[in-house]
């Protein structure tokens, strides 16, 4: 197995970091790695905001309710961004561009580009023995994050990425069996009951035996709880008010 695959397969989220900040050089390498990800039609539809201001970090931490938003080696916020292209357009073509930028297709382009960049950043960080935690919890109050980071039209904060030197080494979290997620040639509605039952048992054992935050739970129960209530309903109107995903 090569070093990259080893790094990928050794991933686990880190939620406790030492006080050591990461260096400017490390920040630069991480951002360059993010930028080198493939990007739909060369659009590069994202902006990455490094948050160093303690007051802003404090408030983002309040939004998320998670201490590692504040206590980390560096905090990045990944934003889907079509604003820079919108700004480039002359006033005569702006309306034309807006018609295209407001479609679900261009919304998806921006989301995909941003996520790919973030995962490259993650791998770069992990290859330097840093730990990361994605922070979708910033969408707990997407309006407040938007205001704190002064995000204009056509820019939406998708998630944070806390990076730093790990102060913990949690057990690796199991993943779904390969036969459940991988199909050949078409989407087979195969019976995965047995596979999922085994996976639920595996995950139950993981939750019961891991070194922190032990609990009794299964993936099936977790997913039923998650999808039985609407989460962050205000994100839909926020996105549309930013002129994304309107048509
Ligand atoms: C887009 C995204 C958002 C996430 N948001 C959070 C978050 O707000 N807080 C958190 O502790 N973990 C968050 N995570 C981490 C997931 O909980 C974690 O990746 C998942 O449970 C699998 O665990 P592992 O990364 O340790 O393998 C997020 C992950 C992703 C990809």
TrEMBL record:
InterPro entries in the cross-refs: Flavin_OxRdtase_Frp, Nitroreductase, Nitroreductase-like
Highest taxon above the source species: Bacteria
Keyword terms of this UniProt record: Flavoprotein, FMN, NADP, Oxidoreductase
CDD domains noted in UniProt: NfsA-like
Keyword Translocase among record annotations: no
Residue ranges occupied by any Nitroreductase domain in the UniProt entry: 9-165
PANTHER family: NADPH-DEPENDENT OXIDOREDUCTASE (PTHR43425:SF3), OXYGEN-INSENSITIVE NADPH NITROREDUCTASE (PTHR43425)
Record family assignment: Belongs to the flavin oxidoreductase frp family.
Entry protein name: Oxygen-insensitive NADPH nitroreductase
Organism: Ornithinibacillus salinisoli
């Amino acid at each position: 197995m090569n070093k990259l695959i080893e790094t990928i397969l050794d991933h686990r989220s880190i939620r406790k970091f030492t006080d050591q900040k990461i260096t400017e050089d490390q920040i630069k390498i991480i951002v360059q790695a993010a930028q080198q990800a493939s990007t739909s039609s060369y659009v590069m539809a994202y902006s990455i905001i490094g948050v160093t201001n303690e007051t802003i970090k404090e408030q983002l931490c309040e939004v998320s309710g998670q201490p590692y938003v504040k206590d980390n080696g560096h905090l990045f916020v990944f934003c889907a961004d079509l604003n820079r292209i919108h700004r480039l357009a002359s006033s005569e073509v702006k309306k034309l561009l807006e018609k295209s930028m407001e479609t679900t297709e261009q919304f998806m382009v921006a989301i995909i580009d941003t996520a790919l960049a973030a995962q490259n950043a993650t791998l770069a960080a992990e290859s330097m023995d840093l730990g990361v935690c994605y922070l979708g919890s910033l969408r707990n109050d997407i309006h407040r994050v938007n205001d704190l980071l002064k995000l204009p039209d056509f820019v939406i904060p998708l998630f944070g990425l806390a990076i730093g030197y790990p102060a913990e080494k949690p057990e690796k979290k199991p993943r779904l069996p390969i036969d459940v997620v991988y199909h050949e040639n078409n989407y087979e509605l195969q019976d995965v009951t047995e596979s999922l039952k085994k996976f639920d048992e595996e995950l139950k054992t993981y939750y019961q035996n891991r070194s922190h935050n032990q609990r009794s739970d299964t993936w099936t129960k977790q997913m039923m709880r998650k999808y039985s209530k609407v989460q962050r309903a205000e994100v839909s109107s926020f996105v549309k008010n930013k002129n994304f995903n309107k048509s």
